[in-house]
Design brief:
The complex is a heterodimer of chains A (170) and B (516).
Chain A (H helix, E strand, L loop, with lengths): L1 H10 L22 H7 L3 E7 L5 H8 L12 E3 L8 E5 L7 H10 L5 E5 H6 L21 E3 L6 H11 L5
Parallel strand pairs in A: 1-2, 1-3, 3-4, 4-5
Chain B lengths: L1 E2 L4 E2 L1 E2 L6 E5 L5 H10 L3 E9 L7 E9 L2 E9 L5 E3 L8 H12 L2 E3 L47 E6 L11 E7 L2 E8 L7 H5 L7 H5 L7 H15 L7 H29 L3 H22 L8 E2 L2 E2 L5 H27 L1 H7 L7 H7 L3 H5 L7 H4 L20 H24 L18 E7 L4 E8 L5 E7 L2 H11 L8 H8 L4 H4 L1
Parallel strand pairs in B: 4-7, 8-9
Antiparallel strand pairs in B: 1-2, 3-4, 5-6, 6-7, 10-11, 11-12, 13-14, 15-16, 16-17
Helix pairs in contact in B: 5-6, 6-7, 6-13, 6-15, 7-8, 8-13
Classes of the chains: A alpha/beta (170), B alpha+beta (516).
Chain lengths: 170, 516
Amino acid sequence: MYQLLKQIAKTGIKTEEAPLADETLRVLQQRLQEGILKHLGRALAIRHVDAGSCNGCELEIHATNSPYYNLERLGIKFVASPRHADMLLVTGPVSRHMETALKRTYEATPDPKLVVAIGDCGCDGGIFGESYASCGRVANVIPVDVAVPGCPPTPLAIMQGILAAIKSQS
Amino acid sequence: MAFEELGINAAPLPGAMPAFHARIDASELHAMCEKARSQKARLVTLWGSDETTRGGGYALHLALAFPSGLLWLSVPLDRGHPHYPGIANIYPSADRMQRAAYDLVGIHAQENPDHRKWLRHGAWPGGVFPLRKDFDIANCFPPAEDHYPFIKVEGEGVHEIPVGPVHAGTIEPGHFRFTVVGEKILRLEERFGYKHKGIEKRFETMTLEEGARLAGRISGDSTVAYAWAYAMAVEGATGGTEPPRRALALRGILLELERVANHLGDIGYLGNDVALSFGFFQFWRLKEDLLRLNSQLFGHRYLMDMIVPGGVARDLSKREADLLLDRLEKVRGEVATLKSIYDEHAGAQDRFIMTGQVLPELAEKMGLTGFAGRASGIRHDLRVDYSIPPYQQLKVQLASHTRGDVAARVSVRFDELAESIRLIQALVQQLPSGDIRVPLVDAVSGRCGVGWVEGWRGEILIALEAGENHRIHRCHAHDPSWQNWPALQHAVIGNIVPDFPLINKSFNLSYSGHDL
């Protein structure tokens, strides 16, 4: 126990300053009312859905919870069910085998809701494109508010995208 | 030349790894596999191909690992009724691979006890085979239900817990069907294929050079291992393009950095899964430091697209090399401190020890591979078994354990983490001078190449056949998860449901690399 506490004390606080929203990532007009955004900006629940990625984007989504980025300090947390979520964070080209699951997850998420597509594949299908097995970009299957490019996008870019989605446009 | 272990003629394949290619008749397949198994040869992978555009029918291929190298066996199959005797009774891990080969190419394994589809859900109908040459990649079918017949378990107090494809955490999609009695797991049945996105078909629309980028995106956490295996296969298929020695040393550095990053992240998560969130924060701090260093030195946090056919895309300057040595020394010290905290943490050890056990006998039968295999007494590591550059002078220490539980897998990961840091330091210190890339020799249509690399998860194999005009005729990618997923079904039996995430994480298998 002594070793553990010593290590915590030695490490100190690693969390860095949070990034600002990147509004250039927005692809749809803000759908939500001002009053709702005011609440979401302080308590946002995200359900992550991997709809067919290579797992690269997931590595960076994990990293947003590492001590350097510490996404939860902004009141943003990942939840285990779409029924508890305000936002879906979707990665991958949507494989045809995940098309139904993604649509059902979207339907299970209560309104008002937001969708952020993560990664080059989520934005435009990426290297996998559209085919017998892939529907391509996320917007081909469900409405997307914000799309964050990158292969994979950095944790900061992912945070900037999430923040852009809950920012008022007025 | 004669491939002595099996007493057949096999042609050596050009390339870095010792590999041989032979054609056999379907009628010889069973006897050949029996003989191979009796000599403890491992089944690395099995796949199918369409040879009708070359005047043939179809073909079954398998890759077996012998002490003298990899044996790639091709079995020509009839065009009208492509079938062969299934080998899952000899190599149980062949079962799902045979079913996938049917879904994609339409070659049929006879006498296989399980005839259910595997990678196909509802995206294309039965009787249609995407990897056949007359199938257009843009062909789309109306979505259909999967209707997969799970095995029913009945009895007093027995009930089912279906999980997925959308999981509760940030994880890839797959379905787990638990049968439980109270809290205990009686049986687990897995269902995959949700991530199938047509990777092998996509390869066939690409040139040998273009394929490198796709190979690096088969499984994002193993991008270096896949890119190296692909580059090795292309170098073989172009008649033995030889990357410069400096490039090979840099590839070794990149692969070991990938291993270090993944073990750091997973050991952190394993702490988190047993309520030691301290472990998560400490190891993810170290992992993030390393990813930032990767970005600084190589321009990419996960080192994507660094390994290319013919060499590597980026050099390491003397100043950068010194920085790498300095940072790794710090990581080594921190990991040693954290390891002693994990080792002495009664709560964590209580959850790790005797949880999710795969005993050596079962591991051998199932063909368990990679670090999970080594934690269950399967003493294989390609870096040790076939000492090729840049590993041949480094005397890689094989990490192993025999208990096969979560604790054993954690222990092997800690050992491999320390060993990889030593290897990187040795490679950096002995970095040869010279070029980092050579142009590819022209490929001849029909020529084969094999890439076989010990990724952090296990053996990754790329089997490549060149087509006309430097294009890809067939590229098969194999992830070690094919062998290890079925073993997970056994590892969880008798454990409690809440320990499943812990057991699963201790293997951390790939969905994308498996579903292709």
